[in-house]
Amino acid sequence: MSALLRTMALGLSLALLPAASQSQMPLQDLREVAMQLRQAIVQQDVAAVLRHVSRQRGLTCTDTPFPYAEVRRDLANKKSHLYLSLFDSAGFSKRCGNQYPPQYPAISDQAFFAAAPDGPIEIKPLEADWALVIFKSPVENHYPREYNFHRESGKWKLVEGVIVGRCTCG
Questions:
Q1: Residue 9 has pLDDT above 50, yes or no
Q2: Domains, the chain, ranges and CATH?
Q3: Distance (Å, rounded) from C-alpha 150 to C-alpha 158?
Q4: What does pTM read for this prediction?
Q5: Pairwise CA distance, residues 80 & 45, whole Å
Q6: Collapsed DSSP state (helix, strand, coil) of residue 142
Q7: Helices (H), the chain
Q8: By the 8 A CB rule, do 164 and 61 touch?
């Protein structure tokens, strides 16, 4: 089947779907992106993590924007808050542990995801092209991870929820 016919068939099949199913499709895409991002963090794949970050918006932490170039630089620096919070629990705890309550210690996102590799993911649409993804863990003292995503040019990109530039965000 030619590419044109496949595209036309897909368009027709989407047009025949109920409206509710069509609105859920972008959220299904987001679930896949969130799982890919979780896997990239577990595997400490900096390049893959960076591919999920918004090039347009970079990342935001407590209303402070960090442009994409700065995020890329921080991911290359193993002593940055971003790198430590994503991949180095010991380093993150040493630098920032005093800013976290004992019931929710400072651990890296990698340690969080490794402890619950198939932990539940909850997706909450916020407004057009915006959604919150909440990663939960069965480990009692692991505070859920909440990442905000924005849909840009048809692709979901991480824009907020990871630690950048300081010990905490939120």
A1: no
A2: 21-160 (3.10.450)
A3: 7
A4: 0.83
A5: 16
A6: coil
A7: 3-16, 19-42, 46-51, 68-76, 81-87, 89-96, 109-115
A8: yes
